[in-house]
From TrEMBL, chain A:
InterPro entries in UniProt: AA_ABC_transptr_permease_3TM, ArtM/GltK/GlnP/TcyL/YhdX-like, MetI-like, MetI-like_sf
Membrane topology (UniProt): Multi-pass membrane protein
Protein name according to UniProt: General L-amino acid transport system permease protein
Predominant cellular place of this UniProt entry's protein: membrane
Subcellular localization(s) per the UniProt record: Cell inner membrane; Cell membrane
Keywords: Amino-acid transport, Cell membrane, Membrane, Transmembrane, Transmembrane helix, Transport
Residue ranges constituting the ABC transmembrane type-1 domain according to the UniProt record: 95-387
PROSITE patterns, per database record: ABC_TM1
CDD domains in UniProt: TM_PBP2
TrEMBL record, chain B:
Segments forming domain Solute-binding protein family 3/N-terminal: 34-264
Origin organism lineage: Bacteria, Pseudomonadati, Pseudomonadota, Alphaproteobacteria, Rhodospirillales
Signal peptide (residue range): 1-23
Domain of life of the native organism: Bacteria
Protein name in the entry: General L-amino acid transport system substrate-binding protein
InterPro entries xrefs: Bact_solute-bind_prot3, Solute-binding_3/MltF_N
Gene3D superfamilies named among the record's database cross-references: Periplasmic binding protein-like II (3.40.190.10)
One matching Pfam family: SBP_bac_3
Similarity annotation: Belongs to the bacterial solute-binding protein 3 family.
Keywords tagged on the record: Signal, Transport
Length: 399, 339
């Protein structure tokens, strides 16, 4: 290799690399190796030092504790759980609780955010000002304070459980949250669930067929109404066929609390309302900016072509607005999901709360923290991947 | 990717830990000039800042006692208020030298959490508090109740065990901060508040809007020996904390208190001479001044004085000595011999 003997002033031969620091290509490779090396060295040092310190103090390590009996209670759970179950299952309960509040929160925040965002652009002065006030107040107060506010609202303004408000037959509102009657268990509910899924699939099929037909023949088909009919009609037909059971599981005051029916705990109410209201304020701004980004000329052009208001919004404005809305909306979804860890402060058993209890009972803080971080990472990446896929799907196809 | 966030998670522990592990705790403390002590953020009688912002309480007094044993100055101590969940990482990582925060000594904490427990400073047990209006007379009547409990405590586990072994169900409301747990109970979110009996007494006396509206049920459902704790791996430091606690108990057994201690200066009792350092040896063995025990009793008092001052019948907590009386008076307080 003659290049090695070249002087530092010499230019590298075309297509080759000179092993000299004055050669930009070589220099950049050297720097990259140094940076990666430093990162690996620091990482190795931290891990090695940690393990060393843990061993010296004989603090237990490893994830064996996940199989041990948790022996602590959890207030609310989507799956069966008792203190006899393992730490692993307790953690799963926490993950599901986090997902529950995140999913419902994301859906509600999107709806409220869109309404408020559109309202801010309204030509009605009062509606526009109300929407602006909401956005400005809510997004400038720390979410934790808002959670305390919603939680205190339930525990301080609601009556004690024995004097529960009874606004509708079977519905009870008290410091212990909301209790509503639910249909008593009956095999027909499962069948109705299947019918619903079938209905949704059929509606999707119909809408695809209608679009293809319109593209081919120009004939429009009321796919929306047909789809709605399928989604609602099929489960109702199944219900009628199943004997139309009407028995309800109504909450009753027994001893200290209500039993029966379905409950919304004050903790869940506070965390869901807090996160929804807070995130909706940001989503409103995202939606407003998205709509503003579409030139008014687009609307005028659509009208000139004779498109009515609805299709103008659906076929012209939204596809262009979504392009602007979706990337920041993804961040807001991620924020909502991550902010759900504030649930710890008001006693909603989310994954951080349960992992914290676990790491406290077992003393294995590092393992607990890695599990929290890993889980959030997986959930966040899933949301990101889904939203990126959606973003790509709605991206403008330029011809 | 995995090692990436493992390292981040570990970093907080490690950076401080590597410092703490380097030198003996006593040397570090002497060089720094004060003891860093982890205490409860707000439990009247045990660890609580008073209206002037001074830390008071039984646990706090043991922090001060260790400071006196080393520096002969009860103010050479800084307090780190810790939640139940923060306390173990804080002591493991070396953020505090001593954890004196109404912490129950248990096998798991002694082993896999990596702690060494000094002698018990308060023998406690878990109980239940309910509002008088409920008319509940016994914990056995609590089936179906909603229970407010602080997370990360043995309380949370005993609660589950007690209801399970009595075939009762309950609905836990688990909150991290002690203040928020109390607030939830007093607002009526829960029927029952559960923690150690002493804690219930402190909360009823100091936090309840109307103390007489609340009753503490008679059942004691667990053993809660509350003890100061140090990290594994530094025997000298452990010995200092251990014998500082014993010094307060031994002083009470001798009948020595902060007021009369100087009268014992001429005592011919060889036990007392060794204890007060007039015949040397005990201080050197611990790496402390020979008069360390004298200083502790003179500046902080004996166990009885510490108890009476913070939680005794003359305080709002109005706790009797009970199990915490000296062994000579039917209690469990017993110091190993100073020789």
């Amino acid at each position: 290799m003659a290049t090695q003997t070249r002087t530092t002033q010499g230019a590298p031969p075309p297509g080759g690399v000179s092993f000299s620091l004055s050669d930009p290509t070589f220099r950049s490779i050297v720097y990259q190796i140094l940076v990666v090396g430093a990162v690996i060295a620091v990482g190795w040092f931290l891990i090695h030092n940690t393990l060393d310190n843990l061993a010296r103090r004989s603090i237990a390590t490893g994830y064996d504790f996940l199989g041990r009996e948790a022996s602590f209670g959890i207030g609310e759970s989507l799956i069966d759980y008792s203190p006899r179950d393992t730490y692993g299952r307790a953690f799963l309960v926490g993950v599901l609780n986090t997902l529950k509040v995140s999913v419902i929160g994301i859906i509600l925040a999107t709806i409220i955010g869109t309404v408020v965002g559109v309202a801010r652009l309204s030509s009605n002065w009062l509606i526009a000002k109300l929407a602006s006030t909401y956005v400005e107040i809510i997004r400038n107060i720390p979410p934790l304070l808002q959670l305390f506010f919603w939680y205190a609202l339930v525990s301080d303004s609601m009556p004690p459980v024995r004097q529960a408000l009874n606004p509708l037959p079977g519905v009870f509102l008290s410091q212990r949250g909301l209790r509503v009657p639910v249909p008593a268990p009956d095999p027909v509910w499962t069948t109705m669930g299947i019918a619903l899924v079938v209905g949704i699939a059929a509606a999707w099929g119909v809408s695809r067929w209608a679009r293809a037909r319109q593209a081919r023949t120009g004939q429009p088909f009321p796919a929306g109404w047909a789809g709605l009919g399928l989604i609602i009609g099929l489960p109702i037909l199944t219900w009628l066929a199943g004997g139309a059971p009407l028995a309800m599981d109504v909450p009753k005051l027994a001893g200290f609390n209500f039993t029966g029916g379905a409950a919304i705990s004050p903790e869940f109410f506070a965390i869901l309302t807090g996160l929804t209201v807070y995130t909706a304020a940001f989503i409103a701004e995202v939606v407003r900016s998205g709509i503003k980004a579409v030139n008014w000329g687009q609307t005028e052009a659509a009208r000139a072509l004779g498109l009515p208001g609805g299709p103008t919004l659906r076929l012209v404005i939204l596809p262009q607005a979504l392009r602007v809305i979706v990337p920041p909306l993804t961040s807001q979804y991620l924020n909502l999901m991550k902010n759900s860890s504030l649930a710890l402060a008001i006693g909603y058993p989310d994954l951080v709360s349960i992992a914290n209890t676990t790491l406290n009972q077992t003393g294995q803080a590092i393992e607990g923290v890695t599990m929290i971080m890993g889980t959030y990472l997986v959930i966040s990446l899933s949301i990101s991947i889904f939203m990126n896929w959606y973003n790509k799907r709605i991206a403008l196809v330029e011809r | 990717m995995k090692t990436g966030f493992l390292a981040t998670a570990a970093a907080a522990v490690v950076v401080t830990a590597s410092v703490a592990a380097g030198a003996a705790t006593l040397d570090t403390v002497k060089q720094r000039g004060f003891v860093q002590c982890g205490v409860n953020a707000g439990l009247p009688g045990f660890g609580n800042p008073d209206s002037a912002g001074n830390w008071t309480g039984l646990d706090v007094d043991y922090c001060r006692a260790v400071a006196v044993a080393i520096f002969n100055d009860p103010n050479k101590v800084k307090f780190t208020p810790l939640s139940a969940q923060q306390r173990f990482p804080a002591i493991q990582s070396g953020e505090v030298d001593l954890l004196s925060r109404n912490t129950t000594a248990t096998l798991t904490r002694d082993t896999s959490v990596g702690l060494n427990f000094a002698p018990v400073t308060y023998y406690d047990g878990q109980g239940f508090m309910v509002t008088k209006k409920l008319g509940v007379k016994s914990a056995k009547e609590l089936n179906g109740a909603t229970v407010c409990v602080q997370s990360g405590t043995t309380t949370e586990l005993n609660l589950a065990d007690y209801f399970r072994s009595n075939n009762m169900s309950y609905n836990p409301v688990v909150i991290e901060s002690n203040d928020e747990v109390n607030a939830a109970y007093f607002a009526g979110r829960c029927d029952v508040l559960t923690t150690d009996m002493s804690g219930l007494a402190g909360t009823r006396a100091g936090v309840a809007p109307v103390p007489d509206d609340h009753v503490i049920l008679p059942e004691v459902i667990s053993k809660e020996p509350l003890a100061p704790a140090v990290r594994h791996g530094d025997d000298q430091w452990f010995d200092i904390v251990k014998w500082t606690v014993y010094a307060t108990i031994q002083a009470e057994e001798f009948g020595i208190n902060s007021k009369n201690i100087d009268e014992f200066g001429n005592s011919q009792n060889p036990d007392i001479q060794r204890f007060l350092g007039t015949s040397p040896g005990m201080g050197k063995a611990l790496g402390l001044d020979e008069k360390w025990a004298y200083n502790v009793v003179k500046k902080i008092g004996n166990y009885g004085e510490i108890f009476d001052r913070n939680v005794g019948p003359g305080t709002p907590l109005k706790l009797e000595r009970g199990l915490n009386a000296l062994w000579t008076k039917g209690g469990l307080m017993y110091a190993e011999p100073f020789r």
